[in-house]
Amino acid sequence: MEANEKDKLGKEFKSLMGEEEFARIIVDNSNIFINVWTVNGILIKFNKYCQRITGFSEEEVLGTNWKGRIVSNEVCQDIDELFDMYKEGRVPPTIEGEILCKDGKHVKVLWNNSLIFDKNNNPRYGISLGIDITQTKDFEQRLGESYKELEKIYSENKKAEETIYKLAYYDVLTKLPNKTLAMKELDYNINEAKKKNTKVGLLSIDLDNFKDINDTLGHNFGDIILKQVADFIINLIPKDYTVARLGGDEFLIIAPNIKDAFELEQCALRLKAEFEKSFNLNSREVYITFSMGISIFPKDADDRQSLYKIADIAMYHAKRLGKNNYQFYIKELSDNIKYKLDLERDLREAIKREEFAVYYQPQFDIKQGKITGVEALIRWNHPKNGFLAPSEFIPIAEATGLIVPIGEWVLYMACLQHKEWTEKGYKDIRMSVNISARQFEQKNFIENLKEILEDTEMNPCFLEVEITESIALMDVEYTITILNQLQDMGIKVSLDDFGTGYSSLNYLKRLPIDTIKIDKSFLENIAIEKNDTILTKTVIELARNLKLYTIAEGVETVDQYKFLRDNSCDMVQGYLFSKPMPKDEIEKLFFSDFNI
Ligand code: C2E
Ligand code: MG
Ligand code: MG
What we know:
The protein is α/β, with parallel strands linked by helices. It is built from 22 helices and 21 strands.
């Protein structure tokens, strides 16, 4: 628009109503609060918008009536300060305030103030222009509240997150990292070691006999011990090592950046020495030891899982070596485990594949000068490893429970063999069969035995079961009931490997047995060790007093035989007469003469 055209329109508008009218129209039609005051605080203008919003007429508030009406009494004091500023010729800054309505409502207002001076340049009027900011303020407030709410939720979430994190990565009891975190840490350390070409040590710890502590002193006590052990380990290992509780009584130490195995050995020795000083619990002294297995990255394995697994293998090796010691992993341990696992797998199939055989070893009666019995001994013809002696697989069979079906199979075969020999005319041959702990413990042991005897039609009077001392003493009362049942059936019982176990003479008196088998370890040194000689004599003497037969096993030399004969041992069994043999071979010996 051209300048002169603007000028023209302005003049035209003003001429229509005059300057004063023009100003009044603007004041009355503006949708903003307009208040005009003298600098002494006398209100002289309260525009239409003010009246409409507050409900007060201009008359009701002009002069000093505004006090306590459009402004609460408390705020009046602040307003007085505003007038003081006006009087000094200063313009108060833009400010947020409120205006009160007749119905008690508060309207929030953003006030902008200006000052009008008179001709002599004295401050004369103050003008307050205000806009309604109630909605904005409410919105702001709600926003603030929402923000606070959000903050609260956020912090609660954060707490929950922390709790979840703690539960996921820490052990509740000891506050140590748990297995998940330990494995992450190990991963991290292995990766770092790969980059920096350094070594990481892993120490797997398992407390010895902790179950006994829990069982005898209670779980609460056990928990306190575990906490103490955790604190103990933390204080004894270097700062940059990590210790975690994997569960139960298992702990794991990660040693990053180690120089050599020696460093780990130092740590293990320090722990062992300190543990041996005993733990103090409610002024009760508790002794705790641990078994530890140690593996090293990258020498032993180059990934986390294998490193952990083999530290565990070494730890179990430490347990087997009698506990309270540490063992470094060596490859042979894994080979051995693999061999045993393979053997266990094959053992499960061996009966079906008919890989077992029963060998028999004669038992020679010294007085009668002839074979009066045989001991049935199992052999395993392994498809790959060849002929295996019982010592190589019986322990695995015991551990896995496979000994039960295997033992029953031997018993069945031996009884069947006896029947066959009886039919062939080899009469009066006693058949001794070894019974393992697992078999003996079976609830249906006696029933199975009866069934086998019936099936094979063997005369029970010729059957002898061999149990070891340790089996017999496991639960003496139970043993006595079973042995009585056996005796009632006419079956003989002999105590195998006598002298290698507890040799508790008290119990020996109470057990209904027929024969004592003196272990071959007694005979090995008979000529050399005077003590063994005396011991063997004593055992024979003792057996005689208890009216028990004696049989010495492992007789290999004529000297041993003569010693036993001269000391009134009843029977002998050993390589001197024959090694355990297949049935056909053994038959040939039944009527042979032994000229010793
Ligand atoms: P055991 O019952 O004490 O059997 C005697 C062991 O001594 C047999 O070993 C036998 O071969 C060996 N032996 C006999 N005479 C001599 C000798 O003069 N010198 C030497 N050095 N050894 C001799 P084997 O057959 O290796 O059996 C070892 C063990 O395995 C047995 O000890 C027995 O405890 C167990 N066993 C064998 N067969 C069975 C079975 O069918 N069931 C169960 N549960 N265990 C069995
Ligand atoms: Mg035996
Ligand atoms: Mg024996």
